[in-house]
Design brief:
The chain is of the alpha+beta class. The chain contains 5 helices and 14 strands. The protein has 2 domains: 101 residues, no CATH class; 145 residues, Jelly Rolls. A hairpin with a 2-residue loop joins strand 3 and strand 4. Helix 2 runs antiparallel to helix 3 and helix 3 packs antiparallel against helix 5. It is globular, with a radius of gyration of 20 Å.
């Protein structure tokens, strides 16, 4: 039996996934109802529909890519090769899974903002760096969609080697952080980069778009998902490295510590 025939069911699974998601969207679009009973009342039907659409795009692309690669594998393909092809799927499907499990725009579990305001530092005046949440008046709007769960950082000082650090004490009881990151609607500085740092200032690796990395440039549009390993870390630092002389305003949404 060929690899193509073994994995032809993936196309059917993808179609069923899209049909199921569309079925969930119809009530909200036609009647303004919540897509899920667990969604917070502060999230409108239109907002939640947009979150589903934003999640379906990367999910569909990841499934189609995996399907094509699986079909191209030779009959002698190893288990390791197959696992390598499907490895990006959990991350790409994560946002959709969060929505369909009843959380709406509110991920379950603790988050960084639930731990309180971080210690703010940097190599320039601390007044150059600001942190806020929806509870303190921030509006987390990425590509026209407003998110109720997350936080916003604003790093405005620039210069050679400028950066802003936001540090939380996490108590060595978590192993990972999942978060989606994107420029806020009010951002005026694209090209910024970011890192995660651990207890001793060491760079923490994270997975984004199926790749392991220690730094990433924030994409100009939309959200990108990240999964950071924080095993044995008692503190976690988010570092923003701005790339221009204007405010770099970045939103971190649907973050969950586990």
């Amino acid at each position: 039996m060929s690899i193509r025939s073994k994995f032809s069911g993936l196309r059917r699974a993808r179609a069923l996934c899209l049909i199921a998601a569309t079925a969930l969207l119809i009530p909200a679009l036609l009647w303004g109802g919540d897509l899920l009973a667990g969604a917070q009342s502060s999230t409108s039907g239109a907002d939640l529909a947009q979150q589903y659409l934003s999640a379906l795009g990367p999910a569909g692309t990841a499934i189609a890519t995996a399907e094509a690669k699986l079909k191209a594998l030779p009959i002698t393909a190893s288990v390791t090769q197959v696992k390598a092809v499907v490895a990006p799927l959990p991350e790409a499907l994560g946002p959709l899974e969060t929505l369909t499990q009843g959380g709406g725009s509110s991920p379950t579990g603790p988050s960084l903002q639930s731990l309180g305001k971080p210690i703010i530092d940097g190599n320039y005046d601390s007044q150059c760096h600001r942190y806020s949440t929806p509870a303190s008046g921030a509006h987390l709007i990425v590509d026209g969609t407003e998110y109720q769960d997350g936080f916003q950082v604003n790093t405005s000082c620039t210069g050679d080697g400028a950066y802003g650090d936001y540090t939380w004490e996490i108590g060595a009881k978590y192993t990972s952080l999942k978060v989606q990151v994107g420029y806020d609607l009010s951002n005026s500085c694209v090209g910024s980069a970011m890192r995660f740092l651990g207890n001793r200032g060491e760079y923490l690796p994270f997975v984004s778009n199926g790749k392991m990395m220690e730094a990433i440039g924030i994409q100009a549009r939309g959200l990108v998902s990240m999964n950071v390993s924080i095993t044995q870390q008692t503190q976690l630092t988010l570092r923003i490295i701005p790339n221009c002389n204007q405010d770099s305003i970045v939103d971190f949404v649907n973050d969950t510590l586990s």
